[in-house]
Amino acid sequence: MGKLVLFDIDGTLLKGSFAHEQAFRRAFLKVYGIEAGIDMLDHRGKTDLQIVIEVLKLFGLSPGSRQNLYFETLEKEFLIFSQPEKLEVLPGVCALLEKLKSRNIPLGLLTGNARGIAFSKTEKVDLLSFFDVAASAFGDESPVRSDLVEKVRKQGWNPIFLVGDTPRDIEAGKKAKVATIGVATGIHSVLQLTEAGADLVLKDLRDPHFIEFIQ
Ligand SMILES: [Mg+2]
After folding, report:
1. What backbone torsions phi and psi does residue 44 show, to the nearest 5 degrees?
2. Is residue 16 pLDDT above 90, yes or no?
3. I want to staple 198 with a disulfide (CB 3.0 to 4.6 A). Which of 6, 117, 182, 209 is the partner?
């Protein structure tokens, strides 16, 4: 297996999704009976499962046997809340994905979003079809982001380039020993992504250094 490029979703491919946060809140209430939200944590770059575990811990709870029900509820609520929402594809994303596709470079999603939510967000902005779902990993699969990278790496791809907007993306990539590209289109700066140890840091995905770097 050859080269693979893995993309994070929020802050990397697109922005403007608030439904996810509302869905978390509703699902916590419906499934665990608690008034809780992801704003109780520094949640950026964490997987959805990690967020659920950490929020429940604040209430002395753990996901337990209701974990699957939680994610089913989360995804259902997300679909309701996301209906009216307009997502914005970040600068350079469409052109870059087209370019990679024209060069037959396989692309995967490596996201903290639960699978159904990742599909829903990327489909809404017509990006889902760029990605090979089998070469992807999602945030309901592990609370540890580097485990997601590891899961894809074990399929035999080499080299892998991981693209993300938070220091946690970069740390996960480094831990799983893949090349990392930080993109400062989320809330983190070029400096923060550089300090996290990214192999390449870009202001946004319009930068032609991306293609050069993965050659
Ligand atoms: Mg992100």
Report:
1. -65, 130
2. no
3. 182
